[in-house]
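I am still learning, so can you show me any protein sequence you like together with the matching C-alpha cells, please?
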Amino acid sequence: MNFNASFQQILAEKMQTQTSKLEESNSSISPLETDPVHLAFLLGRVDRFSFTPGRARKSYPRPSPRPRPAHTMNMAQKASFEYLKSFDCCLSENFNLRELKAAFRAGALKTHPDQGGQVFEFIELKNHYASLLSLVSMGSRCTP
C-alpha cells in the first residue's frame, strides 16, 4: 500500500482485495462481512468530500462580551466593596460572582485564624462578603 495514495485509490485497492477474498471462498458470507462500512457506496462520493491538507476551516469570530454596568450600592455595600478591594485590587465596580469570590479568598488567606489572622477580622470579612453577595447572586444563596 502506498502512503502517498489518495483516499479513492486506497478504497479501490481495499475493494479489490475484498472481492478477491469473496471469490476464493465458496462459503456464503453476508454482505456486511465483505463490506462492513459500505465502502462501495462511498467509492463514488469520495471526490465530493475530499480532504485537502493545510487548509483550515474558517471559524466565526466570537462576539465581544458586553460590558457589565456598575452595581448600584448603598453606603454599607460601598464600604464593603472598599474593604474587599483592599485585599484584591483587581475588583472593579461591575464585579461578577467569580471576581467577588476571588477577592473573598484573597482576604480569607490574610485574615483567617488558621493563617495567622484574628477571628474578628475574619468575621468582618464574611459580613462584608455577604452584603456584596446579594448584588450578584440573584436570589440564590451561594457560600464561599
Q: What stands out?
A: The mean pLDDT is 76. The two ends are 61 Å apart (CA to CA). Residues 7-24 form the longest helix (18 residues).
